[in-house]
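for ur thesis appendix - Ferric reductase-like transmembrane domain-containing protein. copy paste whatever u need, i formatted it the way the template wanted (i think)
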Amino acid sequence: MTLWYVARAAGVVAMIMFTLSAAFGIVTSGSRNPERRFWFQYVHRSAAVTGLVLLGAHVIAVIADSNVAISPTVLLWPFGSGYRPFAMALGTLALYGVVLAAVAGAARGRLAHSRTFSKYWRTIHIAASVGWALSIGHALLAGTDRSTPWMLAITLSCLVAVVGASFYRAHTYAPSNLVRTR
Ligand code: HEM
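the 3d part is after this line
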């Protein structure tokens, strides 16, 4: 059972890390203070990397564990799982989203000179937000603990954190709240 607990714990903490990364990413782009931007960006990236490592552990552990039959082929064909097919499809599509955003983020420094890459980078980065949203759906539908009050509280807190960060950013960017410099 140890592997099964590791699998689920890694999934829960990965979801929390992606939430932290998403919330800090949202407020970073709304901040004009360079020092604050630096630290927000630091938390945004560190949480994303930690989330990816834990996601790797989650996926390896659910596949290796014999408690449920999850074939590695589900990573190639998201709709092919015999166990909770819809929830597993959401999880695999979430993985695609966060991995695509991570690869594009890692390539950003090297391809900074490319106008085409810079132009499309923001669009590609939206994959991270879509991945995060799908991972919330996956957590609400997949887990053994999904209907327990503590797990529901964690998942809904993740949702509230990102929605709250979006409202905060929208409020700080509202024209009526922008400080006039002239
Ligand atoms: C961004 C991607 C993902 C995140 C954040 C994530 C997170 C989670 C979370 C929070 C749970 C609930 C744990 C619980 O209630 O005990 C869970 C369950 C589960 N996940 Fe994922 N997951 C992701 C992707 C995947 C992928 C790609 C797979 C399959 C290869 C997968 C397989 C599973 C399985 C089998 C369960 C059910 C465990 C159970 O029945 O309790 N997950 N995941």
